[in-house]
């Protein structure tokens, strides 16, 4: 029986040829529009690795493209970079392309399979809650209490490599996540999200579900040293303790990046 596309594991849909073509066009955009820098890629060890990052940029997050451009430049296209993505991204007309570029549904089973295959997996535990954080909290690490990434690292034996990024949240002014509005309109049951963000930007001014065009902010991403969970926390690590440590390390690094930033947008 011939396997259908549905039966093919998601990680096997990654296409290095298509990915390389896209990165070729994407690189000038992120290096010119966002003036992006990715520091510390030498900290990523070989084999399966769980890259844990904060998430920025609302409806048009910059984290994945900025990181992917420099990741593939350093490691080449023999090593896939998988990104855990919300069902909404993988459910539209571009879902096939997204999967060929390495996006897989954000669940622990997919993450574990990708890690065991030797892939690098980029996860944003805070998801849309983090990506739409208010502007005055833009330099705060907030995973909304989600710790599934720790369990995945423990189950697979993959090291956790923290990644922090700054600048992506400066593309417009985020006023509120709009949880109260989402509850009133029943958004959660329809779209698997409990927020309805309100922002202010160009060219539409005040908007729901930010539709403004992000201004060209300078984005800097720093890869931190890997964390071997078992070596550091023992054979039976406490999930909350590991999560608290990861977030503390990331917060320290993000605060340091923020202290070096002279002006919003310009960097």
What do you see in this structure?
Keywords: Acyltransferase, Transferase. This is Lysophospholipid acyltransferase family protein. The protein is α/β, with parallel strands linked by helices and 267 residues long. It has two domains: 205 residues, no CATH class; 42 residues, no CATH class. It is 37% helix and 16% strand. The chain has ten helices and ten strands. The strands form two sheets. The protein has a seven-stranded mixed sheet, with helices on both faces. Helix 1 crosses helix 2 and helix 4 runs parallel beside helix 6. The radius of gyration is 18 Å and the shape is globular. The N terminus is likely disordered.
Overall number of structural domains:
2
* Discrete helix count: 10
* Binned strand content: 15-25%
Q: Tell me the major beta sheet.
A: 7 strands, mixed
| Count of beta strands | 10
Strand line-up across the major sheet: 1-10-6-2-5-3-4
Question: Using only CA atoms, what is the Rg?
Answer: 18 Å
Residue-averaged pLDDT:
92
Helix content: 25-40%
Shape: globular
Straight-line N-to-C gap: 56 Å
**What structural class is derived from the secondary structure elements?**
alpha/beta
Q: Report the order of strands and helices.
A: HEEHEHEHEHHEEHHEEEHH
Uncertain regions spanning at least 5 consecutive residues: 1-5
Keywords: Acyltransferase, Transferase
Domain Phospholipid/glycerol acyltransferase: 49-168
Protein name: Lysophospholipid acyltransferase family protein
InterPro entries: P_lipid/glycerol_AcTrfase_prd, Plipid/glycerol_acylTrfase
